[in-house]
Fold this sequence. Notes:
Strand content: 25-35%
Shape: globular
Number of helices: 2
Amino acid sequence: MSHADGCRCPSCAYSICRAMRRDLLPIFQIFDRPFDAPDHVVVRLFTNDQPTVFMWRHSTVDAARASLDGLGLYCIPRDPSDPPTHVESWL
């Protein structure tokens, strides 16, 4: 799949983070109706433990998961100590 310059899809965002610095660990986190997007399921891209400018809104958790399909990521389930809106992480 070819993307235009400035594309902000998850695949391009992942590639941008990896190209910037090889020591960055891109982590996608899925949140269900967080305080700053109470009507959406949100996918946020973090590098290591720091949030980036990349965020995508979806209507369901399944749609959020589908947006990450094809990136070859591994799902880390929610830990009981995570915030209640945190669904899972993908790395």
